[in-house]
Design goal:
Mean pLDDT: 91
Helix content: over 70%
Low-confidence stretches: 267-271
Distance between the termini: 62 Å
Number of strands: 0
Strand content: under 5%
Shape: globular
Radius of gyration: 20 Å
Number of helices: 11
Length: 271
């Protein structure tokens, strides 16, 4: 393991530890105000964006092996899942919660506002951290002016479809593991995230999170703001909606229309 990777991992651990301490303090301080959920959303999304910035730097500028990058992605996803304390960290996820009435519309919109505010804060804070020059990688990135190039390497319709497919897969995994014990669920969802990053990372970066994309991809040169909106906002939104409609509407409809699908094995043999 190189010194740059060791420094980055230490920085990631520090971000998570500081975020977790801040979440605990704010949750206690705001417990009676009804604002604690929004504070947790802010801090958790900030944690997600800062960690992703660092992992993106390791992969794109540091040139670490793809297998190692995927391992870090999996581990980071597990850590986020275990420490988020009820935060969603994804505007598409907040809308899905509102659709299923787990959140009111106003609460979902306020959470989304917190997510984008945290994404913007992380985008501003990370260059300050890199500017300290904790590692040679950070120093090199500073000398390059924190340059970032668009990860979209396919035509925009295909890029949008990739982000849609990634969001569909992750949303489906989240939906179908809600009844699983949390300590197992986070690993299942993290495995799906690592898989879609492996499949779509070379095409679009496989972000599938509008707030995270706003923090990590929108500052990059190579595409316009509207093009980024198409790929990183519309794509994930359609992916989430496709998963919800498929498993909430279409599958139950087909199930009701196909009684033979519900026959026990003995009955099927008799028929």
């Amino acid at each position: 393991m190189t010194a740059d990777v060791a420094v980055s991992l230490s920085l990631l651990a520090g971000i998570v530890a500081l975020s977790d301490a801040t979440r605990r303090v704010l949750s206690r301080a705001l417990a009676d105000t009804g604002l604690s959920v929004y504070a947790v959303e802010l801090v958790s999304t900030f944690q997600l964006c800062c960690c992703t910035h660092e992992l993106k730097l390791l992969s794109e500028v540091g040139g670490i092996e793809p297998r190692l990058a995927l391992t870090f992605t999996y581990l980071a996803s597990v850590v986020h899942g275990l420490t988020f304390s009820g935060a969603i960290g994804n505007p598409s996820g907040a809308l899905e919660h509102a659709y299923h009435a787990r959140l009111s519309g106003g609460c979902a919109l306020r959470r989304i506002a917190c997510q984008f505010a945290a994404a913007a804060a992380a985008r501003a804070a990370v260059p300050v951290i890199w500017g300290v020059g904790l590692s040679g990688l950070h120093v090199r990135h500073k000398l390059l002016g924190y340059r970032c190039i668009s990860p979209i390497h396919v035509p925009l319709p295909k890029a949008t479809a990739v982000e849609l497919a990634c969001a569909f897969a992750v949303q489906t995994a989240i939906t179908h593991t809600r009844t699983v014990d949390e300590k197992y669920r986070v690993h299942a969802v993290a495995a799906v995230i690592a898989t879609v990053v492996y499949a779509g990372g070379s095409l679009t970066g496989a972000v599938f999170n509008p707030a995270l994309a706003f923090s990590t991809q929108f500052p990059c040169s190579g595409n316009s703001f509207l093009e980024y909106c198409l790929v990183y906002w519309l794509g994930p939104l359609l992916g989430m909606m496709s998963s919800v409609l498929l498993f909430d509407k279409l599958v139950p409809l087909l199930w009701r229309k196909s009684p033979s699908l519900r026959l026990p094995p003995e009955a099927k043999k008799r028929t």
